[in-house]
Task: inverse folding
């Protein structure tokens, strides 16, 4: 199949495609993935190769699965799980109670639900009349499961989401038919910031549910007060606000004092404000393998979210829930967040310093998460788009993150994407992996810069 004459985009904008975009192996693989081939009558094969899985499949073709120790995975959104100075020791074994052998409640065990409520009241709602109770919390088996439960209980609605954002939203937004997903691109010029005016515009055009991560994945920026409070004021009584706050602990805006960012601080009435918060042990407690997360919101929402777990995922592992209760003691969490913020801010500064030495430019310094939204537009033509850079990095045994242009209805071609010339770089891995990955990226830059000079 020839791609030289293919119309890559339905856009009317003039676009000169590079040789890399037309002919490179990685672009060909992307275009032909699952095209026109259904080996099983009842299977939609596109469901089996999401963005993350597709990237891993390409890495495995280069030997990643055979010997991961020789690779640097800077693409996966996972923090290092090693011990960090100042953090509490993670359990190395867990006692399993008799209750832990039984089916657990699909909304989670009461003791953990109460511990989550207490944590949010202590850290975000001191002095407020309205307080969260255990009935405002549902425990779910991971963030994705939580988002799917939320999606399952939504009414017919226009759901607004922003570009770029967390890749798993893409599959969730295309899976359910009880709402219509409406994209809203953010501006690169101001760091993809979500302004209150933007929220007002979304509501004015009929959007009644808004989904976003905050702090923002993949851009590493956070919306904090007073703007966050303004956004919640605009949404109050007009729209349901779903806040993915998994990176709330990775906050570098308050001198690493342990402060976490949460919309819980601006809720007026915990049972009336339609603010639904998703967080868990995965990111800020660095326990992604436990699959313990929570949803906080009005009791009526939580009751429905707990019930739908019976037909969606069956609930969260009970022994891990029991082990998590003591981790959420508020003063313990504050010390944990202080150590976390100091450690990851140091890693951010190291990675950005190395990238600046390689010629990368930054309009904004990430103030949260453990991600850098890396602009490739100044690189040599062969590697100045996300897919080509991804492919070049694979050849040097380093993985970078792509596919943050949420496109659930597949309305938009890859080359119309506002994320076309970006990749996400994670400084979540341990120090030695960061050094290994940055050394590999340096080799990529030198190789293609040299080729460009020779071509001139």
Result:
């Amino acid at each position: 199949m020839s791609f030289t004459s293919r119309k890559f985009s339905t856009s009317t904008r003039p676009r000169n495609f590079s040789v890399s975009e037309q002919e490179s192996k990685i672009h060909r693989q992307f275009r032909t993935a699952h095209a026109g081939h259904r080996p099983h009558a009842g299977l939609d094969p596109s469901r089996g190769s999401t963005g993350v899985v597709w990237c891993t499949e390409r890495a495995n073709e280069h030997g990643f699965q055979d010997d991961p120790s020789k690779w640097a995975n800077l693409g996966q959104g996972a923090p290092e799980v090693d011990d960090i100075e100042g953090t509490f020791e993670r359990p190395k074994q867990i006692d399993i109670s008799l209750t832990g052998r039984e089916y657990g409640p699909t909304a989670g065990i009461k003791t953990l639900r109460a511990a989550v409520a207490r944590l949010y009241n202590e850290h975000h709602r001191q002095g407020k009349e309205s307080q969260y109770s255990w009935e405002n919390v549902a425990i779910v088996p991971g963030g994705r499961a939580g988002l799917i439960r939320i999606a399952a209980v939504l009414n017919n609605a226009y759901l607004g989401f922003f570009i770029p954002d967390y890749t798993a939203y893409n599959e969730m937004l295309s899976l359910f038919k009880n709402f219509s997903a409406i994209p809203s691109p953010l501006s690169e010029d101001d760091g993809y910031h979500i302004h209150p005016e933007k929220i007002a515009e979304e509501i004015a055009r009929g959007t009644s549910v808004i989904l976003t991560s905050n702090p923002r994945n993949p851009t590493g920026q956070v919306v904090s007060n007073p703007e966050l409070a303004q956004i919640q004021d605009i949404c109050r009584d007009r729209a349901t606000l779903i806040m993915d706050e998994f990176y709330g602990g990775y906050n570098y805006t308050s001198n690493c004092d342990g402060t976490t960012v949460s919309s819980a601080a601006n809720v007026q009435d915990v049972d009336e404000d339609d603010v639904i918060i998703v967080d868990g042990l995965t990111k800020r407690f660095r326990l992604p393998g436990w699959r313990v997360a929570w949803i906080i919101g009005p009791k009526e929402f939580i009751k429905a979210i707990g019930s739908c777990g019976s037909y969606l995922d069956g609930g969260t592992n009970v022994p891990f829930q029991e082990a998590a209760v003591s981790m959420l003691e508020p003063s313990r969490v504050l010390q944990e967040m202080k150590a976390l913020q100091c450690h990851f801010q140091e890693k951010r500064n190291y990675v950005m310093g190395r990238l600046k030495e390689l010629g990368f430019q930054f309009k904004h310094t990430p103030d949260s998460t453990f991600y850098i939204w890396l602009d490739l537009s100044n690189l040599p033509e062969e590697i100045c788009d996300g897919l080509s850079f991804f492919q070049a990095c694979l050849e040097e045994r380093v993985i970078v993150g792509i596919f943050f242009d949420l496109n659930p209805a597949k309305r938009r071609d890859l080359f119309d994407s506002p994320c076309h010339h970006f990749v996400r770089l994670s400084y979540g891995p341990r120090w030695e992996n960061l050094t290994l990955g940055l050394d590999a990226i340096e080799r990529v830059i030198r190789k293609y810069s040299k080729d460009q000079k020779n071509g001139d």
Notes: Residues 1-13, 405-409 have pLDDT under 50 and may be disordered. The longest helix spans residues 330-357. The first strand starts at residue 72 and ends at 73.
